[in-house]
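Final report, closing paragraph on structural work. Over the funding period we assembled a curated collection of sequence-structure pairs, and we close with a single example.
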Amino acid sequence: MKSGVVGYARKRPAHLGLVMLAGAVSLAGAAHAAEADSDATEVSAVQVNGVRKPLDNDTGLSVLPTTVQDTPQAISVISQAQLKAQGVNSLEQALRNVPGITIAIGEGGTLNGDQFKIRGFDAKDDVYIDGLRDFGVYTRDSFNYQEVQVLKGPSGAMFGRGTTGGAINTVSKTPRLQDFATVDTYAGNGDYYRALADINHQLNDTTAVRLNLMGSSTGVVDRDSINSKRWGAALSVGFGLGTDTTLTASYLHQHDNRRPDYGITIVQRPGDIIALPATEYGVGVERSSFLGFNNDVDRTDADILTVRVSHKAAPWLTLTSDSRVGAYRRYFQYSTTDQCNAACTTALFDNNAATEAYGGIGGSGPYDQDSWGAQNISTARMDFDVGGLKTQAIFGVDLSYQHNDKQFYAYTLPAGITARTAIPHPLVNPNPIFPAGYSVFRPVVGRNITCPASGPCTTSYNGATVATNVTAATALATQGEAVDLALFFTDRLWLTDALSVIGSLRVDRYDAKLDTLLMSGAASPVGGLKVKSTLKSPRASLVYEPSQTETYYLSWGRSETPQGTSVVGAGTAVALTAKDLEPEVSQIWEAGAKLGLPGGRASFTASVFDVKKDNSLQTDPGTGFLVAQSGERQEVKGVELGLTGKLTEAWTVSLGYAYLDARIKESYSNCTVPTTTAGTPTAVVCPVGVTVAIPVLNTVAVGQQVVFVPKTSASVFTTYDLGHWVEGLSVGGDVTYQSKLNVAYTARSVSYTDRATLTASRLAEVPESVTLNAFAAWTFGEGQRLAVNVYNLTDRLNYTQVFGNRAVPAAGRTFIASYSKSF
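Its predicted structure, as stored:
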C-alpha cells in the first residue's frame, strides 16, 4: 500500500487507519495515483483508474478507514479519468453512471437544485465534499472533482442524520509535490462553451499549491430558453505533505446564473388511468417546449472554506481535525406549468387546432436566500493488540451549525385574474413572455398590500389596484437554524487474519428551529417551531477475507431522520403538525462479495440488501384518527452487480446493474368530502367522523412501487485502445438504462358507502430511458488531446428529472469537441 494512505485491511500495518476527508497526504497520493495511469480497476460497477489492484483504492474517509475492497457495503466510484472521458460538467451528470440513483426536479417542499435519490430514498441533505457536509442547495459543477463516491445503504453511523439510501461524497483535487498545468476547452451545439485550467506548483519539499478555474456558458439541445452561465475557482495549499503532520487549506467559489427547467406537464388523456408527459402523445407539445417564462432565473453563489489537519502522534495514534465554513446566496424565480384540468385535457386531445389547451401555473413566489453552515470533525485513531488480536478503535466528535434566512417575493396578477393557477398558459406553442400586469414585487406588512376579510389580497401596480397571489397566511420571511452535536465510536477486531468484526455507534443531539413571519404580521407560531431529537445510529459487520482479492461480508445498520433535518434544503424545514413526531428510522441488512477474477485484470462485485423505512405517526387521543405523519413506510429489496476490468490489453469494460423492488407499505393522503367527476367521487373520502384534510390510509398506493424508483437500471462504460493502429487513438462510449418511473398515485372512491374499496383515478408515469453516448480521443505531441463526444446518439426522447406532475426532457443529440494541453 502507498505510504501515507490509511485503511482497514487484513495483513496491513497496524498504524493504518482513519482520517476524515482523508488528510492531504492520502488525498494527494490517491489523486496522483488516479491520474498517473489509465489502467482500469474495480469499484462496484463503476470504473476507477489507478495503479493499484482492483478495489484497493482508499475511501478517504476517517469514519470509514478502509479500502473499497475491505468496506462491508456497496460503494460506487466515478474516477477523474472517467469524468474527463465522458465530458462530465456537473455532479448530476456524474451520478448518471450509478444505477439506482434518480434525480428529482425539486418542488413540493424541496428546493430546486441537486436533488438525488439513492435506492429510492431522498438524499438532498446527504451530499458531502471531502467527507464534510455541503450545506447548500445548488447545481454543483464538477471542475474541482478528483472522483465521486456513492456509499449505498443507511450510513448514519458514519455521517449522522439522514443517509437512508446512502451518501454522496465528492473528493476534491488537492496539491501534489510536483509542477504541472492542464488547460481544457470545449465547444458544441446547443451553444455549449466551456474552459478549465488546473495548475499545480511545488513550493518546497513539503509544500504545494493548486489552482483550478472554470468558465462555462451552456445551453441544452432541443430545450428552448434553457441556459447556464457558470464560473468557479478553487485554490488549495498543502503544508507538510509526505510528513507525519499535514495541513491542507482550500477555498472554493462557484457562481451560476441559469434559467431553471421545470419540464413538461404530465397529463391524463380522457378515459385513461395512466398519465404521461404531454410530449408522449403527439398532440403538439414538443420536447423543446419551455413552459416557464424568460424572467425565470436562478442565481447562486457558493463560498466554501475547508481546513484539514492530520497528525501522527505515535506509531499507534493518529489525530485528525477537519473544519469547514460554507456560505450560500441565492435568488430563485421560477414558473411551473404543472396543471392541466378537464378543459385543458379536452382541448389538448380534441384534434381541433382552433381550441387552445391552457395549463395552470403552480409553485410559490420567488425568494432571496442567505445561508451558511460550519462543521468540525475531530478523530483519534488507535491501533493496538488486545489479547494478541489486532484491533483498531476510532473515537470522534462531529459539531455542526446551520443558519438560513429567506425573504419571499410575490406576483401581481393580470387584470381579471385572482389566482396564478388561472393565468392562461398554453401547452402548445407556449409564450415565454410575462403576461401584461404580471410582475414581481416584495410585499411589506402594512405598507404595500391589503388583505380583506374575503377575496384576494391586492396591491398597487402602474397606478391601478390589482390582485396578488399572497394571502394573509402567506410567509414573507423565514429564519431557520440547526445545531448537531455528535459523538461516534468504531472498533474493528481481527479474530483471525481472515475474519474480523466491526462495531460502530453514533449518537447525535439535533436541535432545529424555524421562525416564520406571515403576511398578517404575526409569527407562526409565536416563538417559532422547535425540534429536539436524540439520534442513535448503530452498525455491525462481519467480514471474511481469505485473500487480498476476496471479501465477503454481512452488515446491519440503522439511520434516523429527525423532523427539521433540512433547514437549508426544504421549503419549510419544520411543519407545525409534524414538529413533535419522532425521527424516521431506517434499517438495512446487506450481504455481499467483492472478488478479483483470475489474472487480476477484472473484478466482480455483488450485493443483496433489504432496507426498511418506518414512518412516525401522531394520532388524536380523543378520536384515534391520524393527525400527522412523517412520511411513507417503505421497504426496498434489491440486488446490485458489477463487473469491471480489462478484458484484453486494449479493451476495458465497466458494467453495473441494480434491481430495486421498492414497495410502499403504508401511505396516507388528506381526505376530502365526496365530490364527483362524471358521478364518481375523487380523492380519498373522509371516513365517518373524520374532518376534511385529516390523513387517512391510501390503499391505492400501498403495495405499489415507491415513486421515483426504477425497478431496474444498468450502465455500461467501455473504452478501446486503438494505439496499435493509430498511436494515441482510443474510442469508447456508454449506455445507460432506467425502467419506467411511477411518480404519483391518486385514489378515488368507487362508492360513497364502501369507502374501504379504493381504485386509482390517476397513475402518473415517466417512460423508460435508454441513452447511448460515444467518444473518440487522440493523444498526440507533448501532452495534447483532441476528443469528440456524442451524447444521446439515437436522439431518443428521454427524461432527465422527474416530479409528481412534470418531467424534464433530456438533451437531444449533442456533439461536443474538446482540446486539452498539459504542460
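The domain at 182-822 is CATH 2.40.170.20 (Maltoporin; Chain A). The longest helix spans residues 24-36. We thank the funder for supporting this effort.
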